[in-house]
Amino acid sequence: MQIPFVNLRRQYEPILPELQSSLIHLIDSNQVVGGEAVSSFESSFAQGIGVGYAISCASGTDAIEVILRAWNVGVGDEVIVPTNGWLSVAQVVCLIGATPVFVDNHPETYNLDLDSLEKKITHKTKVIIPIHLYGNPVEMKRLVKLADQSRIKVLEDCAQAHGASVDGKKVGSWGHAGIFSFYPTKNLSVLGDGGAIVTSDEELASQCRAIANYGQFKKFTCSVMGRNSRMDALQAKVVSLKLPHLNLWNQRRQQIARYYSEAWEDLPIQLPVNNDKSVWHLFVIQTNNRDGVKEKLAKCGIQTEVHYPIPVCQQPLFQKFRDSTGYANAERQAPRLLSIPLYPELTDLEVEYIAKSFRKVIERVAPSHQLDR
Ligand SMILES: Cc1ncc(COP(=O)(O)O)c(C=O)c1O
Question: Which atom in ligand 1 lies closest to the alpha carbon of residue 183?
Answer without folding.
Answer: 10
